[in-house]
């Protein structure tokens, strides 16, 4: 079962919550036990998991990443978004979550985020649900 | 087949070897060919793979990460563990290893580590074994 | 279906394109719908996805990573390649791509790269294709 979703990000760098979309995709699939693979088909965005309670965590993550991988640093890529390419490779283009009793197995404080590093943009992510 | 394991980490930042637990989980599952997905349901810990021989490698990894993502850096999150949240997203919350002849396919020097970034704590990780 | 591939890297740090090998492996498997898991059985190399068009992106990624994680930084590991171990954990040892109609689902600008951090060397990566 293959699904495609769209997101409209709002900032240059942003963790955009996609947990609701992932959960409803698993529900739609009807799969009770298996894995759910989320894949981002871009090169300047990624997917990650992190805290769902205090929104300050998201800001700390994006601010610190902007400091560690600066927007400008004598990059050669003419488009000017090399920092976004680097951050995307560091965060990774996919997440796999386990499905149990029809729900993703997530920790109490975990939500799933589309990691925008070169927005705002219209983006998409794809999901594959495998029974097993 | 779904499994849950507990670990008691000993330091604030530590790579804790879970290879034995993963191997025995695969054995328990009886699966000979497939994949084994390891997932960490926390937001300040992760899972990674790295060297199993010289223990100095683990220290070099944790020391350097503590330097690249400092414990204090004007973070806004009141709990004071934003560095751990950032490191966890960088290392990632899951690993998937291939199962062949009933064993995980790992390189000669590879072991699997629970990456603690805000310990010491009682932690857990979950494992899903899929035949295929 | 399990496959093993070899690569000969050419530089100390290099993103080596393995997309063609991955695509032909999926074709060989005959699987039309499923997932393809790529795993690097080393501790100083990784696998990532990134831009396939402007080659300057690869150079920006490797140059910046060499700056963020310096080759020398009072590491204790006697082999002198701790930076490579750290970068490998940051990039990650596996990628999972979705298979649809017999092809990997990749974005327009995405290719799959073996990330060499301690080359040049003869390396290998393994691939598992799962139908589902």
From TrEMBL, chains A, B, C:
Cross-referenced Pfam families: YjbQ
Superkingdom of this protein's organism: Bacteria
Name of the protein this chain belongs to: Secondary thiamine-phosphate synthase enzyme
Signal peptide span: none
Similarity comment: family membership: Belongs to the UPF0047 family.
């Amino acid at each position: 079962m293959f699904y495609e979703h769209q997101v409209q990000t709002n900032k240059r760098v942003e963790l955009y919550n996609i947990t609701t979309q992932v959960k409803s995709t698993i529900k739609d699939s009807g799969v009770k036990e298996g894995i759910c693979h989320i894949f981002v088909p871009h090169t300047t965005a990624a997917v990650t998991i992190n805290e769902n309670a205090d929104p300050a965590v998201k800001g700390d993550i994006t601010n610190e990443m902007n400091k560690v991988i600066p927007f400008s640093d004598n990059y050669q890529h003419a488009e000017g978004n090399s920092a976004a390419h680097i951050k995307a490779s560091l965060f990774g283009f996919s997440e796999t979550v386990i499905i149990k009793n029809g729900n993703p197995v997530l920790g109490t404080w975990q939500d799933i985020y589309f990691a925008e590093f070169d927005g705002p943009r219209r983006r998409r992510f794809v999901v594959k649900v495998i029974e097993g």
